[in-house]
Amino acid sequence: MEKALICSYCKIICHKKCISKIQNECTSYCVMKNETEAGSRHFGVRVCALTSERNPVPIVLEILLEHVEMNGLYTEGIYRKSGSANRMKELWQRLEADPTAVNLEEYPIHAVTGILKQWLRELPDPLMTFTYYNDFLHAVEMPGKQEQLQAIYRILEQLPQANYNTLERLVFHLVRVAKEEPHNRMTPNALAIVYAPCILRCPDNADPLTSMKDVAKTTMCVEMLINEQIRKYNERIEEIEQLEYAEALAVNQLKLKRQNTVNEKSSVDLSPVHEDSPTDSDIEAEKTLMERIKSIKEEKEEIVYRLPELEQPGSDQENLDSEASLSTESLLDERTGILDSEGQY
After folding, report:
1. Would you say 172 and 138 are in contact if contact means Cβ atoms under 8 Å apart?
2. What angle do CA 6, 159, 179 make, to 5 degrees?
3. What is the separation of C-alpha 132 from the centre of its chain, rounded to a whole number of angstroms?
4. What is the pLDDT of residues 251-267, one digit of tens each?
5. 188, 240 Cβ separation under 8 angstroms
6. In what helix (H) or strand (E) does residue 287 lie, and over which residues does it extend?
7. What local confidence, expressed as pLDDT, does residue 177 receive?
8. What percent of the chain shows pLDDT beyond 90?
9. Are 116 and 62 in contact (CB under 8 A)?
10. Coil, helix or strand for 6?
11. d(CA 44, CA 313)
C-alpha cells in the first residue's frame, strides 16, 4: 500500500499522486508567512518579502556577498570548506536580529560563506523556483549547447523580478569568485556543485531517488549559467579596455595640442607681429578632441551601467578608474582655463 503525504503546516492529508492536483492554498502556511514578515525576519522568508525598489537584493545576502568579495576571493576552497557550527549558529542569530549591526570581520570567512549558503537553502522557494524546476532540467536536455543556453535564459526571464534580481547578483558574485580560480581553486564546475542544491533544488514533495538522478542536470544548468556570464563579463572588460585605450590616445593628443599652442604663443610674444588668439583651426581641433574624450567617457559609463555591479565600492579597479577619470577631467578643466585666459589677451 502506497503511503500518503501530510502537510507539516495545515496537516492536510492526500495521496502522493494527487499532490499536484490540490487547488487551495495552505492557510496555515500563509498565516505563518505573514507573521514572519511582520517580525522582519531575514531567514526562511520568501525573496519577494525581503526586497523593495530601494533594496532589489535582500540585505542579508548583499552584506554577505560584499564581505566575501572584499575578504575571501583569494581564500582556497572558499565555498568548498565548512565553517564552525557554533560560530555559524551565533552569526545566524545576530543576522536574524539586525544584519546592519553585525561586524562580519569577527567571524572566520568560512562561517560567513556557510551562512550565505544556509540563507539560500532556507528560502521557502529557491531562487530559480520550484515552478520552473522541470523546465530548467528540460533545457539542459536539448541537443545543442546554444539551444540549451537560449532555453535557460528564456526561463530566467520568466522568474519573479525579486528572484531574478537576486539571482543576477549571486551569479555575478560567482563569476568574480571563478575569475580568481588560480588562488581559490573554485572552478565554475566546483561552484555549480556547491550552489545547484541551494538555488535549483527539487520540490519538497519530489521522489528522493528522482531528485538524486537530477543532480547532474541541475549542476550542469548552473555551471552553464556561470560560464556564460563569465564570457559576457570578459567581453565587457575588453570593451572597456578598448575605450580606455582610445581615451588615452585622445588625452595625449589634447596634451600635445595644448603644448604646441603654448609654444606658439611664446614665440608670437617674441616676434614683431602679434596675434591675439590661436587660429580657428586650432580651436576647432581642440574642441573636437574634447568632444571625443567626452563621448568615450559616456560610452564607457554606459557599458558599466549595463553591469551596475561590475566593481564593488572600494575595489582596486574602481580606484584606478576614478583616478583616470579625475585625470581626464582635470585636463579638460585646465584646457578650458587656458582657452579662457588666452581670450583675454
Report:
1. no
2. 110
3. 22
4. 777 777 777 766 665 66
5. no
6. helix 280-306
7. 95
8. 49
9. no
10. strand
11. 29
| Spatial separation of the C-alpha atoms in residues 162 and 53, rounded to whole Å | 10
Residue found by looking up cell 565555498 in the block: 79
Pick 1 or 266 by higher pLDDT: 266
C-alpha span between 198 and 182 (Å, rounded): 25
Tell me the sheet residues that pair with 4.
15
CB-based contacts of 96, cutoff 8 Å, min separation 6: 41, 42, 43
Please name the residue that has the C-alpha cell 565548512.
82
Instruction: Report long-range pairs for 101-108 (Cβ below 8 Å, ≥24 apart).
Output: 102/63, 104/63, 104/64, 104/67, 105/67, 105/71, 107/83, 108/83, 108/84
Closest residue by Cα to residue 95 from 119, 78, 117: 119
Q: What is the pLDDT of residues 235-244, one digit of tens each?
A: 888 877 777 7
Question: Given the C-alpha cell 552569526, which residue does it identify?
Answer: 91
How many secondary structure helices (H) and strands (E) does the chain include? 12, 2
Find the distance separating the first CA and the last CA of the chain, reported in whole Å.
103
Q: How far is CA 317 from CA 154, 233, 241, 311, 312, in A?
A: 33, 14, 12, 7, 9
Instruction: Compute how many other C-beta atoms are within 10 angstroms of the C-beta atom of residue 41.
Output: 14
pLDDT band at 315 (very low <50, low <70, confident <90, very high): very low
Amino acid at 163: N
| Residue-level pLDDT at 152 | 94
Say which residues have a Cβ less than 8 Å from residue 304's Cβ, sequence separation at least 6: 240, 310
